[in-house]
Amino acid sequence: MTTVIHSVRLIDGGTVTEDSWVAFQDGVVLRTGTGDEWRALAPGDTGVAFDGEGAFLAPGFVDIHGHGGGGAAFDDGADAIRTARALHRAHGTTRAVLSLVTASVDDLADRVAVIAELAEADPTILGSHLEGPFLDPGHKGAHTESLLRAPDAAAIARLVDAGRGTVRQVTLAPELPGGLDAVSQFVAAGVAVAVGHTDATEDDAFAAFDAGATILTHAFNAMPGIHHRAPGPVVAALRDHRVTLEIIADGVHVHPDVVALAFAQAPGRIALITDAMAAAGAADGHYELGGLAVTVTDGTARLDADGAIAGSTLTQDAALREAVAAGIPLAAAVGALTAVPARAVGVDDRFGSFAVGRAADAVLLDDALTVRAVWVDGIRT
């Protein structure tokens, strides 16, 4: 059966095209076009035509860094993962890498294995993201300091093996002993390596990028800032065209003017992530993140112990609104939620655009950029 979503403003490939349509068949994109040519593709009872009524239609969002939502954390097993994924899917995130906070290697291996099993049954789960334990204690953020450690080959091999090919991303501090060797080992295993929770200098970051790291985890957060005599990892990432910079555009983690600066300096290389913890889409109150007590007030999550920001309560549609409010053109902001993150973790051959043959994932948005409808593999959810 063919499904056609027509009469939309199609956002894809850096442009917005009026009076457009997209046709899905067998779970993938069949064709796109403009005008009324779509009528021949969804005739009568052999197809489905959905009138977009002039709304925006974007590819399904891809979140490569989030920890949970709907009151549930990705660290807490299959049922919690299903709950959190349902929340984010309703907000347009059709595919996601599930981020795990620092834990013991034993616990992380178990959690990675759970995600590997779920990914076999649920193709909207792209795999896991190990945010720790190979992080700098001085930039630990919401990670348990006693569990942080330098990387070693045996621990890396165990985690990669537990994931059975589904460990999609790892965040590490490359200046730690063995850090550059860890970058090489993860890259050789097909894992996208991100520099983050780090005390890296600009030179340290460049060395990591030369070793194969290609992402900067939540740029500006949990790392040295930009100083005119010590540029740090952010400037290194902005200058290196191989690198994608994650940004948490929630109005709390990064000032909107700095978000706009990052987009201007690294066009086509900004990935808008949520870094969402369990409280995303849930009420303010008391939560736990990686065993640490967190209080959420007015949608901002902070550690009880020291007041540090502890993830976000962001959804990707809200990130889109924040980015546009910061002056980012709509097409560029949508790219930062779709094609850019998909490319960063090596799945842009399947997701992140309306190119023919890509997954039939779509998000319909009204003029206020609020989600009206979501399709996954051509099926409205």
Roughly how much helix do the residues carry, as a percent range? 25-40%
The CATH first-level class of the largest domain comes to: Alpha Beta
Cα separation of the termini: 17 Å
State Rg. 20 Å
Q: Judging from the principal axes of the Cα atoms, what is the shape? A: globular
- Helical stretch tally: 10
CATH topology of the largest domain: TIM Barrel
**Average pLDDT level:** 96
Named CATH architecture of the largest domain: Alpha-Beta Barrel
Structure classification? alpha/beta
Number of domain modules: 2
What's the count of strands?
21
Largest pleated sheet? 8 strands, mixed
Strand content: 25-35%
- Under CATH, the homologous superfamily of the largest domain reads Metal-dependent hydrolases
Q: Which residues form runs of ≥5 with pLDDT under 50?
A: none
Question: What structural keywords apply?
Answer:
Urease, subunit C, domain 1; N-acetylglucosamine-6-phosphate deacetylase activity; about 25% helix; single chain; alpha/beta; TIM Barrel
